[in-house]
Amino acid sequence: MQYEIFGTTLPAVTVTLQQGESIYTQSGGMTWMTDGISMETNMKGGFGKALGRMLTGESLFMATYTAQRPGAQITFASTFPGSIVPIELSGSREFICQKDAFLCATPGVRLSASLQKAKTGFFGGEGFIMQRIGGNGLCFLEIDGTVVAKDLAPGEVIKVDTGNLAAYESSVTYSAETVKGFKNVLFGGEGLFLSVLRGPGRVYLQSVSMAEFASKIIPYIPTSN
Predict the structure, then answer these.
(1) Which residues partner with 111 through β-bridges?
(2) DSSP code for 28
(3) Rounded to an integer, what distance in angstroms lies between the CA atom of residue 71 and that of residue 59?
(4) What does the longest C-alpha to C-alpha distance in the chain come to?
(5) Angle at 59 between CA 128 and CA 213, to 5 degrees
(6) Which of 168, 176, 177, 173 is nearest to 154 (CA)?
(7) What's the mean pLDDT when you consider all of the chain?
(8) Which residues contact 194 (CB under 8 A, 6 or more apart)?
């Protein structure tokens, strides 16, 4: 299997499949494909797992595309200005991602819900339910804005404004921390809490969040009287 990520503001990925190779996405996630690819739609894992995925922002049904001939191509496009990130998964290596981050993956990749602790869910900026990807294979994530990957050493800490955390390896500890200082909280413009990530493991950061972007454009949307 080969792939090419192209585009700038609204990127897409074209995957070239050899005969018998497959890739799956949420229902309606395919953008275009060549002839010679079959599609099968189901709940992938049963109703319980499908419901869990739906709580993370994905559809109840997943569509699996399988090549019937060598060199068949299928394209998946991002739904928001940002970046597409390929992640190779193997064995126990898992990632926790923000809602709606999953774009597509090979059949060996598992997509499920990840429940966060109470304080992190309330104040971390990503909510109680995030996406967990694991298993074996190749997965593509769509991340808002420009993406930066950081590999944290054991015990190394990075503090992130809420909403700018896109994904992190499951070996990373994720928590929420109160911003210190009354004037910092009141006038610093960063809110009351920061997301704290402690290594070891890889972290993906995004330069903007969809919620932040929406809040900036809402004042300019015309309203009827």
Answers:
(1) 133
(2) T
(3) 28
(4) 64
(5) 60
(6) 173
(7) 83
(8) 159, 160, 161, 162, 176, 177, 179
On the CB side of 76, CA atoms within 13 Å amount to 26
Q: Is the pLDDT of residue 186 over 80?
A: no
Q: What is the pLDDT of residue 109?
A: 94
Helix, strand, or coil here: 173? strand
pLDDT of residue 124: 45
CA–CA distance, 104 with 97 (Å, rounded to integer): 14
Q: What order do you get walking across the sheet with 12-17 strand by strand? A: 2-6, 12-17, 72-77, 30-33
* pLDDT(123) > 80: no
With beta carbons less than 8 A apart as the criterion, state whether 16 and 75 touch: no
Say how far apart CA 122 and CA 132 lie, in whole Å.
19
CA atoms of 55 and 4, how far apart (whole Å):
30
**130: alpha, beta or left? (left if phi > 0; alpha if psi -120 to 50):** beta
Residue position matching structure tokens 């994720």: 174
Burial of 93 from C-beta contacts in 10 A (0-12 / 13-18 / 19+): middle
Q: Where are the domains of the chain?
A: 2-220
Per CATH, is 2-220 categorized as 3.60.160.10?
Answer: yes
> pTM of this prediction?
0.81
Distance CA 62, CA 30 (A): 11
User: Which residues make beta-bridge pairs with 224?
Assistant: none
Tokens 């919620």 sit on residue? 211
